[in-house]
Write a structure and sequence with these properties.
Layout lengths: L6 H4 L1 E6 L13 E4 L7 E6 L2 H7 L2 H4 L7 E5 L7 H9 L4 E3 H11 L4 E4 L6 H13 L10 E4 L3 H14 L8 E4 L5 H10 L4 E4 L1 H10 L3 H4 L5 E4 L2 H6 L3 H10 L5 E6 L4 H10 L5 E4 L24 H15 L5 E6 H14 L4 E7 L4 E6 L8
Parallel strand pairs: 6-11, 6-12, 7-9, 7-10, 8-9, 10-11
Antiparallel strand pairs: 1-3, 2-12, 4-5, 13-15, 14-15
Helix pairs in contact: 5-6, 6-7, 9-12
Bound molecules: adenosine-5'-triphosphate.
Length: about 375
């Protein structure tokens, strides 16, 4: 661990051989596992105090948006610059979340990290803060030094908003967003007039800029840190090829960080493509834990196909009457969607189809938010 960092005193190490799946898995959060290429043969497990903390603290005790995901380590105990600390304080963050506590020292050391953490547990700050610390030591240049690839426009905007908070006192650093659904030439102009060191992008638009924006492929050669945010969703949405193409443009000598709520085989595969051998795997999700945030209620209903229309219609109607600020995301296949829209338009209002995540499956996601289309 980083010398002098908060984790030195609180982590202990042990080595173990990896047996058959699930056998002797030991403690599961947070852990750093050193892997070597095709699959982890031998792991170095770093146990942290967040493990005990998770059991010891209730969401009510810790409060705040991230509730029981907060650790006991304060940001001002860490090796981050006074400028970042001031911004963190202004943002209202005092203690680190578990994923932030587990990853910060390792990312600050410049190592590649694959981090598994539930959604809403502070992953964005976990990669932005150490990356900004590193960027603040680089000489000023028109290059892009930090590239964050996100699966959706909404997430890209959220990441940029978080970056702006953390950059509050780093006046020489800036952030720009490039996402589909906006005018390419406007983005080109803004990048030319004000080239920023941090670029947050969705894969399709990023590829567009690589192919069509003069000078962009040179700027991207300056990337020192690459982040794939919500890597599982990026792959689910069919962006693997785009990501591989983008990676081919970026220097091999870089730090790569993958953050993901789940780590299926596809994420493992992309880690082997994108990251250096010996990258660290940090898992902050306990075995058997739900993959989704604890504050998201999930329900399901099994119904015969011919009743789907009427059941869905009634569920939605009830939902929109109970919650004035309602927001609905609705995943369906295209055929069902067309019939459904025809019916619901008449009774509920206009839906907006804003995303088809997988061209292969023909799935669509609809967003409807109290009369306004929301972005995806
Ligand atoms: N240390 C912290 N203390 C308090 N709040 C925090 C801390 N770190 C992040 N947050 C806040 O917690 C919320 C969730 O964080 P964030 O969106 O980064 O989570 P995430 O894991 O990236 O979620 P998603 O997977 O949805 O992107 C945000 O509102 C963020 O501002």
């Amino acid at each position: 661990m980083m010398s002098g960092g908060p984790s030195d005193a609180t982590h202990r190490k042990r080595r173990r051989r990896r047996g058959p799946k699930g056998a002797g898995d030991g403690p599961s959060i947070p852990r750093a596992v050193t892997t070597n290429g095709a699959g982890p043969e031998e792991e170095e497990v770093v146990e942290g105090k967040a493990m005990e903390l998770d059991a010891a603290m209730s969401a009510a005790e810790v409060g705040g948006v991230v509730g029981s995901h907060l650790s006991e380590t304060r940001f001002d105990e860490c090796a981050v610059s006074p400028l970042s600390l001031k911004a963190v304080k202004d943002a209202g963050y005092e203690r680190m979340t578990q994923v932030q506590e587990a990853t910060l020292p390792i990312i600050l050391r410049g190592e590649d990290v694959l981090a598994k953490a539930k959604t809403g547990t502070g992953k964005t700050v976990a990669f932005l803060l150490p990356a900004i610390e590193f960027l603040s030591t680089l000489p000023r240049s028109p290059s892009i030094n930090l590239l964050v690839i996100c699966p959706t426009r909404e997430l890209a905007n959220q990441v940029a908003a978080e970056a702006r908070k953390l950059l509050k006192y780093h006046r020489s650093l800036g952030v720009q967003v490039v996402i589909g659904g906006t005018k390419l030439h406007q983005e080109q102009r803004s990048m030319q007039s004000n080239p920023c060191q941090i670029l947050v992008a969705t894969p399709g638009r990023l590829k567009d800029h690589l192919e069509n924006t003069p000078g962009f492929s040179n700027r991207i050669k300056g990337v020192k840190v690459l982040v794939l945010d919500e890597a599982d969703r990026l792959l689910d949405m069919g962006f693997r090829r785009d990501i591989e193409k983008i990676i081919a443009f970026i220097p091999k000598e870089r730090q790569t960080l993958l953050f993901s709520a789940t780590v299926p085989e596809e994420v493992r595969q992309i880690s082997h493509v994108a990251m250096k051998r010996g990258y660290k795997f940090i898992n902050t999700v306990k075995e058997g834990d739900e993959e989704t945030h604890s504050q998201v209620t999930q329900m399901y209903m099994v119904a015969p196909l011919d009743l789907h229309f009427s059941i869905l219609y009634n569920v939605l109607k009830k939902h929109v009457t109970e919650d004035a600020d309602y927001k609905v995301s609705y995943l369906t296949d295209f055929f069902f969607l067309v019939s459904y829209l025809t019916i619901t338009r008449l009774y509920i209002g206009d839906w907006s189809m804003c995303h088809c995540p997988s061209k292969l499956s023909g799935d669509c996601i609809l967003y409807y938010c109290n009369g306004h289309q929301t972005c995806c």
